[in-house]
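Example 9 (inverse folding). The structure is encoded as follows.
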């Protein structure tokens, strides 16, 4: 009984750790709106290091729990390190040679890693990629924790996609991944914009005002996003789709081979 309950308990604890990481992100995004509505101010740039430290602590704790439960062995952690390093190098190239709009090459590999290895592996790959690449490119600032959370959510949600093990034809898998990449191309920008929308004093018709009802908030933010971010994010969305279609098949093949050779068992969500 004890030997059976141990792994189950560690699996449950792992889910709690990753749930806390997700809730920390939601709280970090929502706190300034609540604080401003209560008249307590909304500035939080000084809180960014604390949020990054909290998220990094949860990521490390998550890896330790995954290792203890057997879901993520030492070879799996090493593979994650390779993927994070490769993606960080791609982001360095992106900073040296910027693409159009908000195009970025890093999201395709985050999506594919989550799809092949599972949601928790995908979350760690996404969050750590943005952290390491920020250190390499000197991109550390109050925006970093929100980039880490959102990239983590990209990888995590990729692990929930259907199709794995169903012997889908390649075109169907690629269509699913491309559509997913397009969706997150827009969603990533929309989520990050929430981290600063509340402090912008722009068009009164699209600015945030404390005390608005949910419908008015959504309408104002929709107008703000359409004017400021839709076109740049379109390049990210189309870039994600193109990279997944062109480089998805060989990358999926390599990642699946690595999963078999490393005896890595994709976690059950």
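The amino acid assigned to each position is listed next.
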């Amino acid at each position: 009984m004890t030997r059976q309950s141990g792994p189950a308990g560690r699996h449950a604890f792992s889910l709690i750790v990753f749930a806390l990481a997700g809730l920390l992100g939601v709280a970090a995004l929502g706190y300034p709106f609540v604080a401003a509505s209560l008249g307590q101010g909304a500035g939080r740039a000084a809180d960014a290091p604390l949020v990054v430290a909290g998220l990094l602590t949860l990521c490390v704790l998550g890896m330790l729990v995954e290792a203890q439960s057997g879901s993520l062995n030492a070879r799996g952690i090493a593979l994650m390190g390779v993927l994070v390093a490769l993606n960080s190098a791609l982001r360095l190239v992106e900073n040296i040679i910027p693409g159009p709009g908000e195009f970025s090459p890093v999201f395709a590999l985050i999506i594919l890693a989550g799809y092949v290895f599972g949601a928790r592996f995908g979350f760690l790959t996404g969050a750590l990629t943005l952290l390491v690449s920020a250190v390499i490119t000197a991109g550390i600032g109050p925006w970093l924790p929100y980039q880490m959370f959102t990239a983590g959510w990209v990888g995590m949600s990729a692990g929930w996609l259907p199709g794995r093990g169903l012997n889908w034809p390649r075109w169907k898998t690629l269509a699913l991944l491309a559509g997913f990449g397009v969706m997150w191309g827009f969603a990533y920008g929309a989520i990050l914009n929430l981290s600063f929308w509340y402090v912008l004093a722009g068009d009164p018709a699209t600015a945030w005002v404390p005390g608005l009802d949910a419908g008015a908030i959504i309408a104002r933010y929709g107008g703000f996003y359409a004017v400021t971010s839709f076109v740049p994010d379109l390049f990210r969305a189309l870039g994600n789709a193109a990279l997944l279609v062109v480089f998805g098949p060989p990358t999926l093949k390599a990642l699946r081979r690595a999963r078999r050779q490393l005896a890595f068992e994709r976690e059950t969500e």
